Predict the structure.
Amino acid sequence: MEAIVCVKRVPSTTTRVQVGADGRSLDPSGVEYVLNPYDEFAVEEALRQRDAAGGGRVTAISFGDEAAQKELRTVLAMGADAALLLANSEAPNADGATTARILAEAIRGRSFDLLLFGKQAVDRDQHGVGPAVATLLGVPCVSEVVAIEVGDGKVVCQREVEGGRETVEAPLPCAITCQKGLNEPRYASLKGIMAAKKKPLEVQPVADFTPAVQVLEMTLPPPRPAGRILGEGPDAVPALIEALKNEAKVL
C-alpha cells in the first residue's frame, strides 16, 4: 500500500488570533501552531491502511514555510515513513487553488494507491484542496469520508449525508478527504519521536508563485453587544417578542 497524505500547519483553534500590521494576514506572534486536526484523521488512516496491507509506504507532503517541519516531524513520529516540505515563506497565506496546484505538481509522477487529505483546513475552511488536487492529477475523489474499505483494486467509502450515509465505490488510485469519525488518531510515542529523527524529511524550495486569490483585507468580527434583561417571568414576554420582531428581526 502506497499512500500520500497532504497536511498543513495551522493556528490552534484555541489560540486568540490578531490581524497583522499589513491588514491582510494574521499576526504570528504568540500564536500556537499545530497539525491541522482533520489531517490527523488522514494520517491515521494512511498508517492503518499500510499496516492492514502488510507493508508499503506513507509519505507526508506539506506546502508551508520552514517552520512546518515541526508538523511533518509529528507525522513522522506518528509512523509515516518519509516527508516532503514544499517550502515558501508566503505559503501560509496561499489560497486553496494555488496550494492545490503546487501539491499536484509535487505529486505528479509519484506512485500511490491512496491520496489522503483532511476534509478542510481549520484556518480557511475552504474544503477545496483535496478535490482540486485530484482533478489536476486526473484521479477520482471521494470527500468527507467516515469509513474506508480497500481491496481488489478499489476503495469503498461511506460519506455522511443529511439523514444518513452514502456508500461510494471508486477505483484505485483514489483521493479521499477525511472527516471526523473515520478513526481515532494516535499519539506519537516516545519511540516514534526518537525514530522520527532518523526518517527522511526533504525540504524542496518553491519559487515565487502568483496566487489565484488575493486577500485584500482581514478584520476580526465586531464584538457582540452586551446582553440585557427585559424583565422576569410572564411579564417579560411582550417585551421579548417586541425585541425579536423589531431589533433581532427573527420573527
The two ends are 56 Å apart (CA to CA). The longest helix spans residues 37-52. The mean pLDDT is 92. Helices lie at 37-52, 69-78, 96-107, 129-137, 190-196, 237-246.
